[in-house]
Design brief:
alpha/beta, 2 domains
Length: 397
Amino acid sequence: MKIGFILCEHPLDVRIKKEARSLAAAGHEVVAIVQERDTNQTVYSSDALTVHTHKPKATTELARGLFFFTRVCFLRTPLESTIEKFARSNQIDAIHVHDLPNSGTAIRVGRKLGIPVVSDLHENYPAAVRAWVGRPSLLQMLTTNQALWTSFQKRCVHRADKVIVVIEEMRDLLLTYGVPKEKVFVVPNYVDLDYLNKISTGREPLSDYAGKFVVSYIGHIGPHRGVDVAIKAMAHVAEKASDVVLVIVGGENDYTKHLHQLIDDLKLQHCVQMVGWQPFERVPDFVAASNAGLVPHQRNPHCDNTIPNKLFDYMGFSKPVIVSDAPPLVRITNDAQAGLVFKADNPFELAECILRLYENAELAKQFGLNGAAAVKSYYNWGTSAAELVKVYETLSH
C-alpha cells in the first residue's frame, strides 16, 4: 500500500520517522508532504520517507485567521488543492494525516478521491492549543477556542476511517464521543530499543556535574509543563542538600524569562541551571548525567491525555523518574515501579520526592533497574509498531 503522510509545519520528528520505518518494514511505501518556509528543495529523502514540500498558504495574520475558520468548519481550505494534487500525482492508496489541524482537509480529499483516511492525533489538540498560549492576543483567543476545536475534533474522528492516539487515556476520551472502540488504535511514542542501545553505549556523565545529584528536566518549556514548580521545589531541597542541582534543558522563549526571574527571586542560581536548547545528539549526555528524570506536568485536559517520550528515555537509561499525578504518568510509573509520584503544582511534595531518592541510593537504583526492564519488555517501539501495522491490515480487509 502507498501511504501519504500529511504533516503540519514542523521538522520530521522522531515519531514520524519511526512510523515511516515501521510501515516500510511491513512492505508499505511512505511519501510525505510538509509545509516548510525556508527550503528550496521540493522533494528530498529522509530515512524511509520521500518528502514533498510546499510553501505556506496563509502568510498574514488575517489569512491565518480565515484559514482557521475554514478549517474548523470543514470548508475548503487553501491547502486542499495541494493535498489533492499530491495524492493524485503519487497515486496514494491511503492518507495518513498527522495531528488535528489538517485532518478535516485530508478527510475532504480522501472522500473526493475515494481513498481511506487515518487521523493520527499526537495529542488532545483542543486542550493543547490553549495550554501553549500564555497570554493570548485577540486573534489567538479565537484560534485557540476550545469549543470550536473540540467540535472539529469530534467530527474528524467520526469521519476518519481509522484514528490513532498516543495513549490509552486519549482513546477513552474519544470513546466518550461515541467513536467505535475498534476504530481507535493506541500507538504510544515508546522509545526505539535500537536507538536507545546506540545512544546509551559508552556515554560518560558530563564533567560539569561531577559530585552532584542531578535532577533533570529535558524538553519543551511552557506554563503547562510544571517547570516553575520544579524550581520552587529546589528552594526546599537546598535547605537540606547542598549538592542537588536541577538542570533544565530546553529552548528559550517568552515563558523562560519568567523562570529566570523566579530563579533570581528565590536566589537559587547555585542549584538551578537553565542550559537552553541543546543539539539533539547532545541530549542523551544530559540524561546520562542525571540521577533522576523529572516530568512535572500540570494537571489539565492536555497533560492528562498525552505522554511525553522523555519518560521512556529516562527509564531506558535506568534512571528513576519523578512524575506529577497526571493519569498516564501515574499509571506507567507505578506499573513499571520506576519512580515516585507527587501531586501536580505542589513544590513541597516534589521536594520530598527528590530528597527521598537523594537519601536512598538503593531505592533510586532499583527504580532505575525496574524502568529499564519495563522498557525492554514492553514500553518500546516494537510494541507500538505492531499496533501501527495493524491499522493498515484492517484497512486492507
